[in-house]
Amino acid sequence: MKLSTLLFGLVAGALSALPLTAVAQQPIVIKFSHVVALDTPKGLAAEFFAKRANELTKGKAKVEVYANSTLYKDKEEMEALQLGAVQMLAPSLAKFGPLGVKEFELFDLPYIFDNTAELHKVTQGPVGQMLLKKLEPKGIVGLAFWDNGFKSFSANTPIKMPADLKGKKIRIQSSKVLEEEIRALSALPQVMAFSEVYQALQTGVVDGAENPISNLYTQKMYEVQKHLALTEHGYLGYAVIVNKKFWEGLPADVRGQLEAAMKEATAYANKIAKEQNDKDLEALKKTGKTQVHTPTAEERAAFKKALAPVHVKMESRIGKDLLQAVYKETGFDPSKF
Ligand code: LMR
Q1: pTM of the model
Q2: Could you tell me which of 115, 140, 240, 303 has the fewest CB atoms within 10 Å of its CB?
């Protein structure tokens, strides 16, 4: 991170910690930093939230959205939030492990959700609420879960069976479950910030990646990946989080209005996520640069079989009781996996 960016952030953070009465005439600025493009499910939902927050608070709060890692990259943004240099983020659920909240990695388990309806039973239900509460000792309040979609593998060589990924270096997010997933395919996991993936694929630092289509398309990874297999082997979504001290220091009426804006933004995010991914898949196909393969039933079964051991291996990391609670909500039966 550039020193000037950090200093700027810290000064902004210190100002935002001033008693709110001292700056009563000024709008309360909420810096919302994220790492994806504007025209992604998260990018669009962040803009939606900013607009509604401004409207519902009648200008008392001003949400400034910084997209595409322009303010902070993955790891830095978590630190910036805890320092108060930014107030709001929506990191993917795979990025909470390094904070010490490894339970969030349950979302990275292969094939744990068959569809979004199953997923929403968890994210929009009591298990989701319980997970968000786990952030509070870290100085963070979890406000909502936003969808992106299901991830698929890409590389420069065709991917049909798990063996096609053997020995390949695959970029992953900072999750131990994802690390185990890649190892289960006899491939080599490489943790890397999202902003660095395109270049790493281009220069051959990594051979492939796993992304929902919206991220692959909007980062133009199709320019540097010749093959995509629609494996949809795992989920990628977000927790919208705020600095706890900042949030609790807000005037109650403003906080309530922001909660209402977040509720609307969450409904919007989860409505457009699939539409956006479907649209990007069509656009991706039109580029003609990446060949898209839809796995046959046999190929899909082979991936499921290869990835099944990840659930067992990661059970103690995530917590047996939590996993059972999730399996109960979704009807997932690991013995039939
Ligand atoms: C990734 O790093 O691949 C994703 O978490 C990026 C994002 O925020 O969707």
Answers
A1: 0.92
A2: 115
